[in-house]
Each structure stands twice: as C-alpha cells, then as structure tokens.
Amino acid sequence: MFPLTAVLGTFERFNRLACYLRPVRVICINRRHYPGTTSFSPAELRIIMSATDQEKAKLLDQQGKDLAALVVALIKQCGLPQNGGVTLAGWSLGTSYMLAIVAAINHLDQDVRECLQKYVAGFLIWGERRSSMTSREQLIIGHTVFRSLF
C-alpha cells in the first residue's frame, strides 16, 4: 500500500490499518515540500500561491506523473511480485495527489503505465467527510475502476 498524505503524522492511521490487514507492507509517501522531500522551486511556489486555475491544474498533473514514476521506482526497488498487489491510498488532502496519479494515466510514459497496470490493483480514498448528517470517517475503495482505466 502506498498512502499519500498532506499532513505530517497522519500516517499513523495507515499503520494502524496495516496491523489488521496482514501481510501488508505500507510505504508512506510525503508530498513535496515536506521535510526530507524535494522542495518546490520558486516558480512552482508562485503557481501554488497565485497562478491561474489552468496553471495550477498543469502543476497538479505534473505531480501526478511524478508520483506515478515514484511508485514505479518503489515497486522495482522493493522487488514486489507482479500479482496486482499494490494499492494506492490517499488520506485527507493527499487524495488530490492520489487522484492526480489516476488522472495522469493516459499521459504517462508507456513503461510507467505498463508497470502500474501490472502491479496496481486499486486505490483507497480515505478521509473525514463531515456534514450535518454524519461525522464518521469514510473509506472509498476503487478496485475494478483502476483496472478499467488502462
């Protein structure tokens, strides 16, 4: 499972989940610009802070491509088996970046796309959705949806 998050410390939830889903290897991925990650360039920070929606969408699309390449690199580095056992997970604001990977599928290099197709079985969108009706956490699972994107 490769969870993405936007807030430091929220990976604890995934670690608790992994205790119940053995055998599961959880590899947590922090977004860029967090301690220990690649910082945004001054131009990228300008886009994030004050650019047009079109420029922001283009940057998010690139983030999806970069994260897809990172997931493929981790799959290869860890020597994971080709049985579709990888799940992408997004927590909180990290769901935007996980969905950016899904949205970028048709724009990825062929080798990255083919690797994801072989290894990734599905995705989780996990976060708190609060309304007047509920205050429970919701977990949305997309398994067959991911496979059909290829």
Describe this protein's structure.
This protein is α/β, with parallel strands linked by helices and 150 residues long. The chain has one domain. 47% of the residues lie in helices and 18% in strands. It has 6 helices and 5 strands. The protein has helices spanning 11-20, 42-50, 53-78, 94-103, 110-119, 144-148; strands at 2-5, 29-30, 86-91, 120-128, 137-142. A 5-stranded mixed β-sheet has the order 2-1-3-4-5. Helix 3 crosses helix 4 and helix 3 crosses helix 5 (110-119). The protein is globular, with a radius of gyration of 16 Å. The two termini are 20 Å apart. 23% of the residues are buried.
Compute the gyration radius: what is it? Answer: 16 Å
Query: How many helices in DSSP terms?
Result: 6
Give start-end ranges of low-pLDDT stretches. Answer: 129-139, 142-147
Overall spatial form: globular
How confident is the prediction overall: mean pLDDT? 75
| Beta-strand percent range | 15-25%
| Amount of helix | 40-55%
Through-space gap between termini: 20 Å
Structural class: alpha/beta
Number of strands: 5
Order of helices and strands: EHEHHEHHEEH
